[in-house]
Amino acid sequence: MLHVDGYAGFERLTANGKIQARRLLAHTRRKFYEIAEAEVTPLATEALRRIAMLYAVEELVRGQSPAHRLAVRRARSKPIVDALQSWLEATLPSLPPRGKLAEAMRYALTRWDGLTRFLDDGRIELDTNPVERAIRPVALGRKNHLFAGSDGGAERWAVIGSLIETAKLNGVEPYAWLKDVLTRMLAGHPASRLDELLPWSWKTENPSNT
Predict the structure, then answer these.
(1) Does 145 share its domain with 178?
(2) Angle at 49 between CA 127 and CA 120, to 5 degrees
(3) Between helices 151-169 and 129-140, what is the axis angle to 10°?
(4) Residue 69 is part of which domain span?
(5) Which residue among 83, 104, 112, 191 has the highest number of C-beta atoms inside a 10 angstrom radius?
(6) Could you tell me if 165 and 194 are in contact, meaning their C-beta atoms sit under 8 angstroms apart?
């Protein structure tokens, strides 16, 4: 399973059927949002309202097990998805074919299978917004990163960058975590217990136990 946007180049990756494309609902939503921002368009607003209902369900299941997420999605999200599809199909023929609103609706409908795969797999997210936010510093600094000095330097920077963003995603302050982890490693923290130092399981050491 591959989370992708509408870039046509991804079609070659999924052509043999071994890889399935999971389309991003955020990209579909963005098209309607841009239309609604540019002018008062009740249809675009209605599309956003329906999509918002799906995100509201996701708020309820965030952090839950894939099995639980899937059960809730099938009970609560599927009716919303089915109604949205029917609404898009019924509304599209009444719109000017070359208009932006018709384009946004066609974008959604032609990618419908990929957009709705989250109804069949509790591991799938509706979008990759957290990941995109995490890699934004990389994109903003790409010109500076060309001067890493060597392939080894670039690799080490990538490792550090990945560690820092992983800490952020787990609600851990990166500097405090790195300082504590490096201190413990220098003090002889057992290699067999390195998993205790990973961001999702890390806890600051109690001074009374040191």
Answers:
(1) yes
(2) 40
(3) 140
(4) 2-119
(5) 104
(6) no
